[in-house]
Amino acid sequence: ARVLEIARRLSRGEALGTGEEEEEGCQRHREPLEVFCKEDGALLCAICRESRAHRAHTVLPVPEVVREYQGQIQAWLQTLKDDRDKIQEFREAEIRRNW
What we know:
Layout: H1 2-11, E1 21-22, E2 25-26, E3 35-37, E4 42-44, H2 46-49, E5 59-61, H3 62-98
Antiparallel strand pairs: 1-2, 3-4, 3-5
């Protein structure tokens, strides 16, 4: 859910409220947010990226993360749509059977 919210806000060009940044960038260092920490699900500046808290974590450039998560979200959405269609077909069959 958090990744979905981040992807939505990034696609709308909004600032993300993960606690470490504000509209101008990283709240601690006043640097632009350049990478996404996959383990923590947070945007990081270059200084935060090199801190002990994130040094061993997997980080990716924001545009790459957006593309990756958009693909995953689209796949999940298609699965949900397929499941919904199956449920609707089953419901309609049950209604016909009851008549």
